Amino acid sequence: MLAKIYNLRFQNLNDARHAATYISEGMGGLVGELNISGLTVLLRKEGVVQAIARFDTQEDFVRVQNKRPDVISLLQKRFPCMIEDIAAVTVYSYEREAVSTV
Questions:
Q1: C-alpha to C-alpha distance for 101 and 86, rounded to whole angstroms
Q2: Which side of the chain, N or C, has fewer Cβ within a 10 Å radius?
Q3: What is the CATH number of the domain that holds 62?
Q4: pTM
């Protein structure tokens, strides 16, 4: 399984909170289009949002790798932030069940 990780560092926690909601809705809406097999959005108190999208096939991963989803690019225009764009291979992943929290 391959993963695309976006680490977004914002100037303050309030911007990060708004961005986390925006990313959750935006990336969540792309699950079918991008064939995302797993999506996790994390908010840290330091004003950092981390979005992790997992893919089952290299073709799906490469498609996202070649073009950053518009939701990430538009977010950077709305809220000043630094974006670290990481490609990774999932070594271990466990989920008891799918959950959605707010």
A1: 25
A2: C
A3: 3.30.70.100
A4: 0.84
